[in-house]
Design goal:
This protein has helices at residues 13-31, 75-81, 99-102, 105-113, 135-143, 154-157, 226-230, 249-254, 258-268, 280-283, 286-296; strands at 2-3, 36-42, 56-61, 64-71, 91-93, 121-126, 165-170, 178-182, 188-195, 202-209, 212-216, 236-240, 272-276, 300-303, 309-312. The chain is α/β, with parallel strands linked by helices. It binds zinc ion. The site of zinc ion (ZN) has 5 residues, from loops.
Length: 313
C-alpha cells in the first residue's frame, strides 16, 4: 500500500503549524511500520525550481531509519522532517558525485555530531573517474584535516567525539553484482553494480531485507542490459525519469528516456516502479512520459514526492 503524504511549501504563519502537523504525520506513517518502508527524502534534480529536495532515500526497517541512499541538496532538511535518526543509520550509500546526489552528506555528518551514535558508520561510493573523485578523495577533500570542513576530520579516524566512517569504494566499471555492505545483525545486505551515466562514475544499489528487495537505479542512460539482471524481481525499482523521449546528445548519454525505463522495469519484472528526479521542465510532461513508461511496463507506477512513503509488502 502506498501512502502519499502532502508537503506544504508556501508558508504563512497560519500554515506553519499545519506543516508541523503534516511532517509529524508523515513521520508517523513511515516509521511506525512493522515492516520495510521506502521513504523518498528528495525527489528533485539539480535545478532549484521545483520546491523539491534533490535526490535522497531512506529505508525504514521496523521503525528504524537504517539505510540511506544518496544525500542531495535538501536531504538534510528532509531527514529531520522525516524524524530519521543519525544514530539508527547502518549505511549511507552514494551513487555518484553530482551535487544533487551527494552535496548534503557533510551536513548530515555534522548533525551526527549531536546524535547519541557511538558505533562506526559504513559509507559507500564510487571510485574516481574523469573529473570526479573517488569516495576516499571526496571525503578527504571535504573533511580531511586542513581541508574545507576539516573540523569534522574526526570522522576519518574516530577522534574528537566523532564516530569513524568505514568507506567502501566501488569500481564503477563492474557490471556484476558485488556485496558492499552487510549489517552486523544480518538483517540488511547491500549489493552494487556500475551503471552508465556519461563520464560520471555511477553506482546502482540493491537493498535486501529478508525477502524484500529495493533497487535504486541511480542516474543512468539505461543502455547496459546487465542492469536488468541486477534489478531482477525487485519488489520496488526506483528509476529517474529526467529526459523526454526524444532526448539526444549529452542528455541522452546521461539519462534513459521513458520508454527505456518501462522496458527495463518490465524485463526486470519489478513489482512496483517509483519514478523520481523531477524538475519543472520534466513535471510539465510528467503524464505523457508516464504513459510512455506504461506502454512497456504493466506494474504499478508511483511518481515520487518528497517524504512519500512506499510500504514494501
Ligand atoms: Zn547525475
Amino acid at each position: 500500500m502506498n501512502r502519499i503524504c502532502p508537503v506544504r511549501y508556501w508558508l504563512s504563519a497560519a500554515t506553519a503549524a499545519l506543516l508541523l502537523t503534516s511532517a509529524q504525520a508523515k513521520a508517523d506513517v513511515c516509521n511506525d511500520s512493522e515492516g520495510v518502508v521506502l521513504q523518498v527524502l528528495g525527489s528533485g534534480g539539480p535545478i532549484a525550481d521545483d520546491a523539491r529536495a534533490s535526490y535522497a532515500y531512506l529505508v525504514w526497517i521496523i521503525g528504524k531509519s537504517r539505510v540511506m541512499i544518496d544525500a542531495g541538496g535538501g536531504a538534510f532538511l528532509r531527514f529531520g522532517e522525516a524524524a530519521a535518526e543519525f544514530s539508527e543509520l547502518d549505511v549511507i550509500a552514494i551513487s555518484h558525485f553530482h551535487t544533487d546526489h551527494s552535496a548534503d552528506l557533510v551536513t548530515l555528518l555534522k548533525t551526527g555530531f549531536f546524535s547519541a551514535r557511538q558505533r562506526p558508520l559504513a559509507v559507500n561510493g564510487p571510485d574516481a573517474g574523469g573529473p570526479f573523485p573517488s569516495l576516499d578523495d571526496y571525503l578527504d577533500s571535504n573533511i580531511g584535516r586542513g581541508n574545507a570542513y576539516g573540523y569534522l576530520s574526526g570522522y576519518l579516524d574516530g577522534t574528537g567525539g566523532l564516530v569513524k566512517l568505514l568507506p567502501t569504494t566501488i569500481d564503477p566499471s563492474r557490471r556484476d553484482s558485488v556485496q558492499v555492505f552487510a549489517s552486523e545483525d544480518g538483517v540488511i545486505e547491500l549489493t552494487a553494480t556500475g551503471v552508465p551515466h556519461g563520464i560520471v562514475p555511477a553506482i546502482a544499489y540493491r537493498v535486501t531485507v529478508g525477502d524484500y528487495d529495493i533497487v535504486f537505479a541511480s542516474d543512468q542512460n539505461g543502455n547496459d542490459d546487465e542492469f536488468v539482471a541486477f534489478a531482477r524481481e525487485a519488489d520496488v525499482l526506483v528509476m529517474h525519469m529526467v529526459v523526454a523521449e526524444d532526448a539526444a546528445g549529452a542528455m541522452r548519454a546521461l539519462h534513459a528516456p521513458p520508454s527505456r525505463i518501462g522496458e527495463i522495469a518490465a524485463r526486470a519484472n519489478a513489482g512496483k516502479l517509483v519514478l523520481s528526479h523531477f524538475m519543472s521542465r520534466s513535471l510539465q510532461s510528467l503524464d505523457q512520459n508516464i504513459e510512455l513508461v506504461r506502454e512497456n511496463y504493466r506494474g504499478e507506477i508511483i511518481p515520487a514526492a518528497d517524504l512519500l512513503c512506499v510500504a514494501i509488502d
